[in-house]
Amino acid sequence: MTDKINGYGRTELPASRSGSVKRTEQGESARSAGGEESTRTDAVALTDTAVRLKRIEASLAELPEVDQARVDALREQVDAGDYQVDGKEIARKLMQLEQDLS
């Protein structure tokens, strides 16, 4: 049996860190042998890490994809001929990235 997960990617946080879902067995209600209606309750609790990750995700979603001020400053440097490329520094950072990934 599979359950569809709804709400993936939402940035808002729940009011509390735990909640419960009431689910009845076999459709709307389940009756025991004595005719009593029974319900099964499932509980979900988010860890502190999950809550922090959700907050980080929400704050990142608010940031612009491009730092336009930095782009404009670099564009001015390139146009003025003042932008200098340090090939050794680029190579060093590429090597560091490769080491970090392995």
Topology, please?
Layout: E1 18-24, E2 30-31, E3 37-45, H1 48-62, H2 68-80, H3 87-101
Antiparallel strand pairs: 1-3, 2-3
Count the E strands. Answer: 3
Strand content range: 15-25%
Number of helices: 3
Q: What topology, given as strand order, has the largest sheet? A: 1-3-2
Spans where pLDDT lies below 50 across 5 or more residues: 24-28
Class computed from helices, strands and strand pairing: alpha+beta
Query: Helical percent range?
Result: 40-55%
**Could you describe the largest sheet, including whether it forms a barrel?**
3 strands, antiparallel
**Spatial separation of the terminal alpha carbons:** 39 Å
**Topology as a string of helices (H) and strands (E):** EEEHHH
